[in-house]
Amino acid sequence: MKTDIDIAHEVELEKISKVAEKLGIKKSQIISYGPYMAKIPCCLIDSKKAKKSKLILVTAITPTKAGIGKTTVSIGLSLGLNKIGKLASVALREPSLGPVFGMKGGAAGGGYAQVLPMENINLHFTGDFHAITSANNTIAALLDNYIYQHRDQADGIKQVLWKRVLDVNDRSLRQIITGLGGLTNGVPAETGFDITPASEIMAILCLSENEADLKRRIEKILLGYTFSGKPFTVSDLGIAGAITVLLKDAMHPNLVQTTENTPAFIHGGPFANIAHGCNSLVATKMAMNYSEYVVTEAGFGADLGAEKFLNIKCRKSGLQPALSVLVVTSQALKMHGGVPVKEIKSENHEGLIKGFENMDRHIENLKSFGQKVLVAFNKYAFDTDAEIALIREHCEMQEVGFAVNNAFAEGGEGAVELAQKVVEMTADKVHKPIHFTYKDTDKIERKIEKIAQKIYGARRVLFSEKALAMIPKFEAMGADTYPVCIAKTQYSFSDDEKAYGSVHDFDFHINDLVLNNGAEFIVAIAGKIMRMPGLPKEPQAKYIDLKNGVISGLS
Questions:
Q1: Cβ neighbours of residue 528 under 8 Å, at least 6 residues apart?
Q2: Burial 172-192 (b: 16+ CB within 10 A, else e)
Q3: What is d(CA 201, CA 215) in angstroms, rounded to the nearest whole number?
Q4: pLDDT of res. 191
Q5: Closest Cα partner for 77 from 515, 421, 485?
Q6: pLDDT digits over 203-245, tens only?
């Protein structure tokens, strides 16, 4: 089969104004970034219109290291819905340069289910990530300057919590010393870098309702504590207006198109293993404003992305999915069934059946939120009819929907069965309210325990002394009512990335707590998870090239 980039180059793209017109957006209303990309002003969102749309959440079972094709399924489903006559769009996160040049090589779908122009989307796009990085690091520079200029002040800053970010995978920057080389270079301090998708600015951008809400949240960012123990925020620096200015264009959702010229909104990009894993709220609402159906995804497995989508994004915004689509592959099922990774492409009924335990846990978790569940089997060329039949039969026993997705090879035509099932399962306009895992009024420790025990299957949660010491400080700021965002490995229900399958009754370790006061949630750092990833032994950067103006190696 042709490579993703070969397929992308063969598609005749429509002018972005024409794509916008399909949704009812006038050419005069869009902010063009060349002929094929545009930003759509946030002011066009009409919440009353958005409520009439059906939101479809795409999530997955615990993935393999190569992923599970969730983005491809999301795009494919939107293609399939348009194929059967529905006005549908897809709302996705923007790719991060870290994974693009590290493990993945791209995150714009695959095969005949891609968002285009894929080279732009995978690289600098409309500059949103650069704006977020700049905003984050401008705060860091202004904070360091404040410390330097007020270094002789009696109640200066004792503890700095704010880190710089960069949108690359660079393990050497996890822990660094700044301010070396003499007094004129600043005050020496131990600090470090996170990757841009882990920045609180990213979370704030993705959860803000509008420009005013964006500024309000930026003002609340907790930067550190003074010697007297007083919280020190961006508001104390007096720079919220300047940081909002840096983000004024990034706040607007991006509109592009699929391989079949249907609309796609791509905006924001927090990872789900170290952040909340959902595209921006304004992109979701914008898509719902103009579409009959909106397909959106949440990162990694349902224990991460879907849990955070429901417990954080939906809790704060009032959004409610009409259906959750759970993506599975035979490879992931067999890996969780104990089959060696090198053999998961070969037919193995015993391993496949054993892997159902992982899928069933995710189904059970989604149902616990009150969600209808549709299992989407993401088909590969090596998959057999016999194995697909086994999965279909098992899903019938679990009383959940099932459909095969073959959009990678066939585009919208390959997702018609999936699209028809989505329409069938969302025909009832009455949706059950979301059953959140915890209450706003639960204690911080209890919220974390409820997620770990109810969603992950942990026996107990063990908090480090460092984590426990942060709780009274957060409570004093009124942050004990915030939801929690657990940062943990994406490869297991537990905090051990090698514990595949459906693990139960394990100890879950919380090593640190971070208050994202502007984003209005608490990040709980579990196990050995890092907020600045490293590069693999064979980074994808080795295969990316430019010859005669044509890019190769992106996928």
A1: 489, 495, 497
A2: ebeeeeebeeeeeebeeeebe
A3: 11
A4: 96
A5: 421
A6: 999 999 999 999 999 999 999 999 999 999 999 999 999 999 9
200's CB contacts (< 8 A; 6+ apart) are 136, 221, 516, 518, 519
For 156-182, how does the pLDDT look when each residue is reduced to its tens digit (9 = 90+)? 899 999 999 999 999 999 999 999 999
* Beta carbons of 65 and 332 less than 8 angstroms apart: no
Domain with residues 4-126+250-425, CATH architecture: 3-Layer(aba) Sandwich (3.40)
Amino acid type, 78: S
Which residues are CB-neighbours of 469 under 8 A, at least 6 positions away?
A: none
Terminal Cα-to-Cα distance of the chain (whole angstroms) = 13
What is the dotted CATH code of the domain comprising 444-526?
A: 3.10.410.10
Task: Determine the longest span between alpha carbons in the chain, in angstroms.
Answer: 74
**pLDDT at 2 > cutoff 90:** no
Give 349-367 as a DSSP string: HHHHHHHHHHHHHHHHHHH
Domain layout of the chain by residue ranges: 4-126+250-425, 129-246, 444-526
- Residues 367, 435: contact at Cβ < 8 Å? no
